[in-house]
Every structure is written in C-alpha cells, then in structure tokens.
Design a protein that fits this description.
The complex is a heterodimer of chains A (about 140) and B (about 150). By secondary structure, chain A is of the alpha+beta class. The relative contact order of chain A is 0.23. Chain B is an alpha+beta fold. In chain B, about 25% of the residues lie in helices and about 35% in strands. Chain B has a 5-stranded antiparallel sheet. In chain B, a hairpin with a 5-residue loop joins strand 4 and strand 5. The mean pLDDT of chain B is about 95. The chains are: A alpha+beta (about 140), B alpha+beta (about 150). At the A-B interface, helix 1, helix 3 and strand 2 of A face helix 1, helix 4 and strand 2 of B. Strand 2 of chain A pairs antiparallel with strand 2 of chain B, so a sheet runs across the interface. Chain B: InterPro entries: FAS1-like_DH_region (IPR039569), HadA-like (IPR016709), HotDog_dom_sf (IPR029069), MCH/BMMD (IPR052342). Chain B: It comes from Bradyrhizobium sediminis. Chain B: This is MaoC family dehydratase N-terminal domain-containing protein. Chain A: It comes from Bradyrhizobium sediminis. Chain A: This is MaoC family dehydratase.
C-alpha cells in the first residue's frame, strides 16, 4: 500500500495534504447517524441556541475523521501507531478544511524505525481547528 | 459539577461488532474512497484478513453499540449541552477488521478544573480488546465541561 518503507521521508517534509468540500448541515446529519454520536448540538439548531451557540457546529470527531482520511491517503493504516488531536476551535458550517502533516522527528522504538508527524486541520481562513500528532512506522 | 471523586470510576463495558454496512455508511458520509476500506481484495493485498476500519472509527463503534451512549455524562451529572470535546488519542496495537467483535472498557482517569473553575477537564481512558482477547487499541478522550455560573 505505502512506499514509505523503502523511501524514508525527511524531517520537515510534508507527507500529508488533503482538502475537503465545505461542511454542510447534511454532512452533520449523516455523520450523526454514521458515528453514533447523537448529541443534538450538531444537528438541532434550537438545542444549539439554548446551549448558547449561534448555530449547530461540526462534531470534533468528524473533523478528526477527515484528518485520519488525509493521513491514510499517505500512510497505510497498519503503519499508524498512534494518532491524537487537540480540538483547538469549533468548526463552523461551511468550513472548507485542509489537513496537513509534516515529519518532525525520525526515531527508533521497539526496534522499529518510526516518524513523528505534526498534523493540522485549518479552515479556509487559516484558523487551526485541530492540532495533532501521529507516530507512524516506516 | 464533576469533581475528583469521579476518578477511578468504571463504566459498563460496551461490546461492538464491526459491521460492513455501517462501516460503508461512515465511509460514504466522509467521501472516503481509499480502496483498502472498500474492496476486500485491496484489503487482502495490503495484508489484512478483511477490510480494516479507519483510524477514528473505534470512537464510533463504542457509541453505536452502547445501550447508554452518554452513560458517563449522566452518571457524572454532566449536562450534554455543556460539553465540548477537548482532545482525543488513539494508540493502535493490532488491526481491527470487519467481522471483529470488540469490547470497550472505560474508566475516568483525571478530573481537573481550569480557568478558575469555569471549565472542568475530564479524561476517560478506554481499553479495546477483540474476540480473541487481543488488546487492539487504547483510546483517551478529554471532555471539557463549561460550568454554569463559574467566574
């Protein structure tokens, strides 16, 4: 699946990069069912307003799923040792997300050559929505 | 308001089956076209015994097959309208593929007040094992509770 086993990336190299279509209300409704996360704050505008938000907003895990998709476009799923994110800001309706990952460190753990990737997801204004990290086997 | 007494609290284990139809719905929702997740032959060629799940899907499985998906919020007396997802971590030990039956065991491992009590961060860690007793993953979520009336 992945060619990274023979061609180790360099520190600083951007190996993950993908953009996604704008997040619509329809996407949020589908993701609600697809993920089992039925928190109404993502689909019910009345609930969202009562909770103090101007509108519904994206599930953080939908945004992380997009980042995961960008990651496994570049790295075979079974090479990913860990994947974590901090949800830095709410992702609003209509956001066009760009996911990126750069190599920050090459190291060895348990006899395996690995790389640490710094991951980000930004919207079209450049605001960071997710800041994360993955450890991958090379 | 959730406090330190919640640390160490365990929740009812969740048993979830990795079903192909539900997985396909998830892939379609995300516009995920990677053949490894959609084509059995591509999955075999990549070394899997069956189609694997995407990196964040463990989180969904735990919610979908949970009799009480918001058990920890209700048990800790946290209002669903006041929670935000702060952080999420997955550590993978072995592949998870279609047909697997997973058991999720969750425990509260940390509770910390932030910003003078305006927010409380609750960490829930989960061990995931498959039908063969293999520990396939560990996950951790940090939930941010926006506290009412806090300064």
């Amino acid at each position: 699946m992945s060619e990274t086993a023979t061609n180790a990336p360099d520190v600083g190299e951007r190996i993950v990069h993908k953009t996604f279509p704008p997040i619509s209300r329809h996407t949020l409704a589908l993701y609600c069912g697809a993920s089992g996360d039925h928190n109404p704050i993502h689909v019910d505008i009345d609930f969202a307003k009562a909770a103090g938000f101007p509108d519904v907003f994206s599930h953080g895990m939908l945004v992380m799923a997009y980042l995961g998709q960008a990651l496994t476009d570049a790295v075979a799923p079974d090479r990913i040792r860990s994947f974590s994110t901090r949800f830095a800001a709410i992702t609003q309706l209509g956001a066009r997300l760009t996911c990126e990952g750069r190599v920050t460190e090459l190291f060895e753990d348990k006899g395996e050559k690995r790389a640490r990737l710094a991951l980000t997801t930004k919207d079209d204004s450049g605001e960071i929505k997710l800041a994360g990290e993955a450890i991958i086997a090379l | 308001m959730v406090d330190q007494s919640a640390v160490g609290r365990n929740f009812t284990p969740v048993v979830a089956r990795v079903e192909p139809g539900r997985l396909r719905y998830f892939l379609n929702t995300l516009g995920e076209r990677n053949p490894v997740y959609r084509d059995e032959a591509a999955a075999h060629a990549a070394g899997y015994s069956a189609i694997p799940v995407p990196p964040t899907y463990l989180f969904c499985l735990e919610l979908m097959d949970n009799e009480r998906p918001f058990e920890f919020l209700t048990d800790l007396n946290i209002d669903l309208a006041r929670v935000l997802h702060g952080e999420q971590r997955f550590t993978y030990h072995a592949p998870v593929v279609v047909g697997d039956t997973l058991t999720f065991k969750s425990c509260v491992t940390d509770v910390a007040d932030k910003k003078g009590g305006a927010m409380t961060m609750v960490v829930v860690e989960t061990e995931v094992t498959n039908q063969h007793g293999v520990r396939v993953a560990d996950t951790a979520r940090t939930i941010v509770v926006r506290n009412q009336g806090a300064s």
